[in-house]
């Protein structure tokens, strides 16, 4: 770790210790994911980045449906598409196909590589989706925690031309409990495996790359039971996005923690599912 640990900042961003039992919370999400994989139509292990071998699973594909890409959390070092299938049922029940992706994990992969893979997944869906019957004029995205950061990296400006994508490709974006300015993490245990520096912060902090023009319909949320770092990051990103005149809605989830907030996506009537649907419908 190149930067000294700040105990207060580290506390503020320690998601695991914010709940009574991480194992219990994780187990609930695995149960939801197992049920989703067992009950939903699924096309598994579609490789979108041949160089890394990164793949995604597609749920609920039907002709003409829009597609929503879910990007998992886990502080960029743990997580899988199978363990995040819980993100699919709520939207699939509302006629939206859901792609749940893997990405290469830290520390073997740098954050630059991870961001590249997520952007590559967007490009693959845009390119290959029509042959599957999907409406990919807009790609809708979402993620939690590290996945919230990666969602922010997708709605950032300045990267689309390298992936042969239009600047307005992202429609709705659901960012939960995200980290939008990476600088505080330099002083936490997270940087022991991320090895970030101020160059990483400048290049890959979404709050520093908000486009001047955006048609993206952003939905933000953070659990009311989460630690202060995640609460601050959400409020700061909301303010910065709105300051550019872009569309943003924040959904209050006062009774939820860093983990069970994501599990609500399995419920077709959940607040976050309905807010995402409203954002998709509002896309030009």
TrEMBL record:
What Pfam family is a match for this entry? BD-FAE
Q: Which residues form the BD-FAE-like domain?
A: 63-151
Keyword terms of this UniProt record: Hydrolase
Residue spans crossing the bilayer? none
PANTHER family, A to Z? AB HYDROLASE SUPERFAMILY PROTEIN C4A8.06C, KYNURENINE FORMAMIDASE
Q: What is this protein called?
A: Esterase
In its UniProt entry, the species of origin is given as Sulfitobacter pacificus
